[in-house]
Amino acid sequence: MNVSLCHRSYTSFCCLTHPPSQSCISPSLHPAQTLSAMFTEVLVALVIGGLIFFLVQRSRTQVLKTEDGWWGAGAPPDGGEDATIRPFKVTSSDEELEDLYRRIDQTRPVPSLEDSQFNYGFNSQYLQKVVSYWRNDFDWRRQVDKLNRYPHFRTNIEGIDIHYLHVKPKKVPEGSTAIPLIMVHGWPGSFYEFYGLIPLLTEPSDPQDLVFEVVCPSIPGYGFSEAPHKKGFDSVCAAHVFHKLMKRLGFQKFYAHGGDWGWLVTTNMAQLEPGIVKGLHVNFAPPSKPGLSMALSIMLGRRFPKMFGFTDMDIQRLYPRMEKLVVEPIKESGYMHIQATKPDTVGRGLNDSPVGLAAYILEKFSTWTSHDFRNLEDGGLTRKFSLDDLLTNVMIYWTSGCIVSSMRFYKENFGKGLDQPHSKMPVYVPTGFACFPDELMHTPKLWVEQKYRKLVTFTPMARGGHFAAMEEPQLMAEDIQNFTKTVEKKKKK
Fold it and tell me: Would you tell me how many other CB atoms lie within 10 Å of the CB of residue 247?
């Protein structure tokens, strides 16, 4: 809007609402002409103000639009969609393990450079130790029993089978009801990331805590969810499918949590149907559409941190700018460029080689947990995770053969450009953000608020990185509890 026009309109408005003085009247204009000019300017100001008000109100009520898709092979069949919900179990066979061991035995080790640690990728010497444990000590059948500890199901939505866990609390305090919560994983994770978190939410030890009923789906193309057979299945499509899933399970309203791709899928769910998502909790929120306030905060935030609400952690994670915002992301984003352009090429090799697959996935669980782990010979892998848990996640990818389809999710999202409708659309669902200090990309509160206009809680976490639900389930559970309690109290008022 023109600044001089605003100033003139304001001056004219003052003249109309206060006794006119000589300063209000131009000496070159007749009083009638002056009043006419003032009236015109006030009218223009009112029209502009009304337009601004309309646009603000429109943005608040704007929802993301999408249509039903068909992601199965071939054309949709005649008749309605099969809404059957079928129990599912993770299984293992002798043939599957024999094939795995044969491929591991035929791996061709490559020596790492001297003193390279994890700075060139997964250290080859340490990889041999991991592979030896995988081949000789890791008990996949025991882990399969652990996976089946919770009820698994599959149901067909838009032509593909969707896998999910549905964990109901064993006991709900009298006079209360369980809070429905959908939790969505990312890459290269899986539903297994939430196994340490689920019991803390469904069976909390504190009687004052809320009790949750948890649904953990596998994104189509990940784990035991069928991969789309057609191009174009992006985060909005996944959000649409998961809304259908929750409705099929009988939930009219629910909360959502996500990290990594799960952040975007659950954010899209809030944009698609904001009246159904009661609250959104995320631990990853990179800016989807950088604006002027973000640019100014980056340029001036180090000198004037209070102006932008920057904390000591913000300063530490954002500066020096070139190193933290350019060099570091380049070091850790090579995988993304490959997967956003030609996922099938490298994916085919990973689908054939269990050792290659383990190196590709586990390297992320090292560096994305802490950048400092690049300087360790073992990548710090077992400082935060057990090899059993890490290899269980790898085995979900291996046994389901989903590495290629999981990588295609990058192609489908980035291939449509960075200016998609959801990237420009604010979220008006109550939101909680858990800010973990070693997250791959740091997002200060100011930046989070640009997207999430009803930011209810912003919690600087004591420790933790990208795979926070798996690394720090207790901290994550506490923050989800705090956020949900805050939203529920506000709703009761």
Answer: 13
Backbone angles phi, psi at 481, to 5 degrees: -60, -50
Rounded to whole angstroms, the Cα distance separating 319 from 312 reads 11
Residues 223 and 396 sit within 8 Å (Cβ to Cβ): yes
466 as an active site residue: the answer is: yes
Q: Of 96, 92, 99, 126, give the one whose Cα is nearest residue 111.
A: 126
**Residues of the chain scoring pLDDT < 70:** 1-61, 492-493
- Three-state SS at 217: strand
Active site residue 260: yes
Q: Which of 150, 164, 222, 410 is catalytic?
A: 410
Alpha-helix residue ranges (DSSP H) falling in 137-279? 140-147, 198-202, 235-248, 261-272
Q: What six digits make up the tokens of 333?
A: 């984003």
| CA dist 289 → 85, 324, 439, 447 (Å) | 39, 19, 19, 10
pLDDT score for 291 = 83
Contacts of residue 272, defined as CB under 8 A and 6 or more positions apart, other chains included, come to 63, 64, 66, 236, 239, 240, 243
225 token code pair: 């969810």
DSSP 3-state of 150: coil
Q: Is 410 a catalytic residue?
A: yes
Q: Which pLDDT value is given to residue 11?
A: 36
Pair of tokens at residue 97? 């393990």
d(CA 69, CA 163): 18
Q: Give the separation between CA 122 and CA 358, rounded to whole angstroms.
A: 10
Q: Is the Cβ–Cβ distance between 230 and 184 less than 8 Å?
A: no
Count of CB atoms within 10 A of residue 209's CB?
A: 19
Which one of the listed residues 260, 314, 389, 438 is annotated catalytic?
Answer: 260
Would the pTM of this model clear 0.90, i.e. be above it?
no
